Amino acid sequence: MDEKSIYILKKLYEDEFVSGESLANELKISRMAVNKRIKSLQQMGFSVASYKKKGYQLVDRDIIRLWQVKDFISSSNLFSDFLYFPQIDSTNSYIKENQQKLVSGTVVYAERQSAGRGRLGRSWVDLEKGIKMSIFLKLGLLDIEKVVPLTLFTGLVVNRVLRRYNVHSFIKWSNDIILNNKKVCGILTELSGELEGSASIIIGMGLNVNCEKIPDEIAEIATSLKKETGSHFDRTDLLIEILKEFESEFENFKNHGFLHFRDEYKSFCINLGKEIVINGTQRAFCKDIGQNGELIVEMDGRIQKIQSGEVTIRW
Ligand code: BTN
């Protein structure tokens, strides 16, 4: 989206009605050019209505305020670009396919995903009014051992931000964010391309925010912030808060690894002290979280470390 379209969107967001004439004057473009941009905003899914005397109106204001996100990105030392897609197959896939031309620190955001991907080859059901984004990082000096816990770190960051909003969320190992026993956020971290001493990583997160009706197929296991708390959340603020928190703790993560966050992680981890089932078959008792975020369990009378897999809790 070009700067002028973002400016128009900003005006529409700030005022109840905006005349085409004032936009044309402010942007020093023709009415036709304004019209064209309004049309393309509509095609992108922004609900802009047009009234003969009053002008244009943004009907649904639950949007991502691109100007604000871009302001944050330009002030950031970690993030470098923000790509907004009204519709895409998957933000993680987009980065995978385009990583050659993307700079480290690019954030790819999509309003809707047609082929969102989840962990363990599953698909990620697309809910409206959520936050679906992927962070692309080229990590020169980060060793691979720290890459795995990066996904746990991201979960901790999301949980921390939600807690600040007084959301009573928890973490289910490895990085599901749980609210009232249902999943409200999932994180898919993918390593893409490994060279000696360097790695590119894609951290995709899907946070269900203001969706009111959860589709039947996932209603028993998934939820949204709005559904559980009854409150509407400002998705732009939430998105920026998550990126800010990620950035401000990322140095700590790089320098000290997951260990620096382990106590906090453990205090919100709902697996600890519970009987769990690993990959649908193996029963175990969850004893601890290791230095690198691995799950430490007692299984078949032995203490074992679990690095990955699907864990369900036996309540
Ligand atoms: C999980 O299975 O819990 C992980 C879900 C991750 C979903 C997000 S939505 C944005 C990004 N793009 C994808 O295709 N997946 C991740």
UniProtKB/TrEMBL annotation:
This is Bifunctional ligase/repressor BirA. It catalyses: biotin + L-lysyl-[protein] + ATP = N(6)-biotinyl-L-lysyl-[protein] + AMP + diphosphate + H(+). Pfam families: BPL_LplA_LipB, HTH_11. Residues 77-254 form the BPL/LPL catalytic domain. The keyword Transferase does not apply. Acts both as a biotin--[acetyl-CoA-carboxylase] ligase and a repressor. Keywords: ATP-binding, Biotin, DNA-binding, Ligase, Nucleotide-binding, Repressor, Transcription, Transcription regulation. Belongs to the biotin--protein ligase family. GO terms for molecular function: biotin--[biotin carboxyl-carrier protein] ligase activity. It comes from the Bacteria. Its EC number is 6.3.4.15. It comes from Caldicellulosiruptor morganii. The keyword Nucleotide-binding applies. Residues 20-39 bind DNA. Biotin binds at S90, T91, N92, Q113, R117, G118, R119, K183.
